[in-house]
Amino acid sequence: MSYLTLAFSLIFVLIPLILSKTLNLGLEKDTIIATIRSIIQLLAVGYILQFVFDSESSIYIWLMVGLMIVAATQNARKKGTSIQGITWKLVGTFIFVEVLTQSVLIGLGITPPTAQYVIPISGMVIGNSMVLGILFLNRFTAEMDDKRNETELILSLGGTPKQAVQRQLKTSIQASIIPTIESQKTIGLVQLPGMMSGQIIAGADPVQAVLFQLLILFLLLTTAVITSALLGFLSYPTLFNERMQLLEEKIKTDS
């Protein structure tokens, strides 16, 4: 694809702009900003990746992975500002997920330790972990706010903080994981995943493309479960003081 054909594809941006203007949706500015940012960011990443691939240096590979973790943390932490130390909890979660998945992939020889494999797979894993983290934090803070009286009742009856938040944790973890599971149920029937479609367009064997896509699906399922569970068990203790009392100011939502 050339820059000229990319310019032609801007018609797919023009259509929503026209519809937004016609229907008075007020989305024109955001659409234009999103389009410009996506062009600049992706082109910049493309040139950076080209440099990293050509250099074949493991230092640049892990610098790219570190940059992904920093960016994901900055985005996800906005949804958990009431949780003490949420930044480092997110960093620890993302690092754990990345180390676990890459250790299995590289350690078992599933994928080679090269930039062409490590960086794209890490991007999908960390990106999915970020989305799951946001979903979990949104639901968990809402559940804690809604079940405040129930939590305090359990504590007053001698229950531990873990027992008091067990239901909220379970509900939040389930709610954040369900979208991943449901999307996998219809994969290949309702949609062809991006990685698989990209490989097929590039001329790869469709069966090989499917095998790689299955690998990613399995990784994302693991990412979903680990991210939600680990973030949940790292977060809930900060909602209580040393006397096992609920800190109500920590669970107030924006609503």
Automatic annotation (TrEMBL):
Predominant cellular place of this UniProt entry's protein: membrane
Matches recorded under InterPro entries: UPF0014_fam (IPR005226)
Subcellular localization(s) per the UniProt record: Membrane
Keywords for this protein: Membrane, Transmembrane, Transmembrane helix
GO cellular component terms listed in the entry, alphabetical order: plasma membrane
Transmembrane segments: 6-27, 34-53, 59-76, 88-111, 117-138, 214-236
Membrane topology listed for this record: Multi-pass membrane protein
Protein name (database record): Iron export ABC transporter permease subunit FetB
Source lineage: Bacteria, Bacillati, Bacillota, Bacilli, Bacillales
